[in-house]
Write a sequence for this structure.
């Protein structure tokens, strides 16, 4: 247990009998949940963690082969669950963690009572009639910029991902998150994330789920949220007024209310 807890910098807090697991998105760490976690502490035992390469995780545990697909990150989730003896949890995944959580739930459905997806996407690339939001040339340009100037990439993209120009401090906060991630691991995780195609995995999910879709999200546009909703067996979709890709940071109250309404 100690090695897994240390590897993923796991934190456990709150006083509830049921467990809520909060899984951060690409380029972030567990601190991004600080704005909403307190709202659930009385009703849940909260588990937060860092993926290997992020925050206070053990960088020596990183393995390029293991983490070349999202299955490697899903394996981390299942190892954390096993180490903490977790079952019947509420799993909240932001961005790429939505698909990581879905992959984990497909393998061990007894671990999950409900899945909550914030800005999910099973496929970021446009593909024939599917609109994921990015052309391959867009992603190649993104990867090239990351490889040549990761700091510059972070400063340029974070405000666009956040999409709250009237609150520049949010873009700065996300930039700081990006910059706190090991740049070599971040570049590999970007390719793993943005080139993944998990559309075929959606039909196997038997766990009830909630899709929280933001407006004006360049990373996971409205069509993607609608696609998720249509493909999943037992999914509720809520469209938030929040703009951008990080509603738990830019619109915490609205995000909290949407999650509580679904769970209650």
């Amino acid at each position: 247990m100690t090695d897994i807890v240390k590897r993923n910098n796991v934190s456990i807090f709150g006083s509830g009998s049921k467990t809520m697991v909060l899984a951060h998105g690409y380029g972030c760490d567990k601190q991004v949940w600080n704005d909403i976690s307190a709202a659930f502490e009385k009703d849940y035992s909260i588990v937060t963690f860092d993926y290997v390469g992020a925050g206070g995780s053990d960088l020596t545990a990183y393995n390029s082969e293991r983490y070349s697909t999202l299955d490697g990150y899903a394996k981390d989730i299942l190892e954390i669950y096993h180490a903490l003896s977790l079952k019947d949890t509420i799993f909240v995944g932001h961005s790429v963690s939505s698909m990581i959580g879905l992959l984990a739930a497909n393998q061990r459905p007894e671990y999950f009572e409900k899945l909550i997806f914030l800005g999910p996407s099973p496929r970021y690339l446009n593909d024939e009639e599917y609109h994921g939001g990015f052309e391959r040339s867009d992603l190649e340009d993104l990867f090239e910029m990351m490889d040549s100037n990761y700091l510059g990439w972070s400063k340029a993209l974070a405000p666009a991902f956040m999409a709250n120009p009237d609150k520049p401090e949010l873009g700065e906060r996300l930039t700081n998150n990006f910059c706190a991630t090991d740049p070599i691991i971040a570049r590999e995780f970007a390719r793993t994330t943005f080139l993944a195609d998990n559309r075929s995995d959606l039909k196997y999910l038997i766990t009830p789920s909630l899709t929280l879709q933001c407006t004006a999200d360049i990373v996971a546009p409205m069509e993607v949220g609608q696609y998720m909703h249509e493909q999943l067996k037992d999914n509720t979709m809520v469209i938030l007024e929040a703009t951008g890709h990080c509603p738990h940071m830019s619109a915490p109250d609205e995000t909290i209310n949407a999650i509580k309404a679904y769970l209650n």
The mean pLDDT is 93. DSSP finds eleven helices and seven strands in the chain. The two ends are 32 Å apart (CA to CA). The domain at 2-263 is CATH 3.40.50.1820 (Rossmann fold).
